[in-house]
């Protein structure tokens, strides 16, 4: 059975997006380049589900884009919990803030504009749930920055770990394709990391679930 048929079936048997997220998803696809970067329906519902399971006090997201995943992750926050999200591109700020406000989350969702590696140390910890979804070549930098700040038993999720299936051995990767080499090396490193347990979910473009021991 083709993968997209399975994906369609999975979408049809996943709870619908809340109306505000459906609007943001549509708006992103109509108005933005690279709209595929947005987590989307099924992955968004998974992020929300994980957040509801963890009931995190503090969530960190690296790579906000239009704010879709941030709003999904915020759905399961503990009653006095907060989410911090970091985005490099200042042109995205107005739209992100508009949606945080429309979701009535201005007190609990904090947007930081700048480079993740510069801003994360000042945000401190502990984090109960981290979503790494920025520039993939730096996955390992972000992982090493945040892992010491993740609570024992806390979770780190890393997106796009299939990297368009280019991580597979059958894909002939060019030496110049630095992103693919970085994603492959990062996935292999986590697999061998005694500090964590991990599950690789082949959902959408691949989501790696990591629990800190
Ligand atoms: C895949 S998109 C994020 C999608 C979003 N998490 C979602 O699921 O809807 C990646 C984002 O990371 C941002 N980004 C790239 N490099 C970054 C950096 N060094 N620090 C922070 N954000 C960065 C990009 O501008 C882009 O908006």
From TrEMBL:
CDD domains: AdoMet_MTases. InterPro entries: Cation-dep_OMT, SAM-dependent_MTases_sf, SAM_O-MeTrfase. The keyword Transferase applies. Gene3D superfamilies: Vaccinia Virus protein VP39. It comes from the Bacteria. Keywords: Methyltransferase, S-adenosyl-L-methionine, Transferase. Pfam families: Methyltransf_3. This is O-methyltransferase. It comes from Hymenobacter tibetensis.
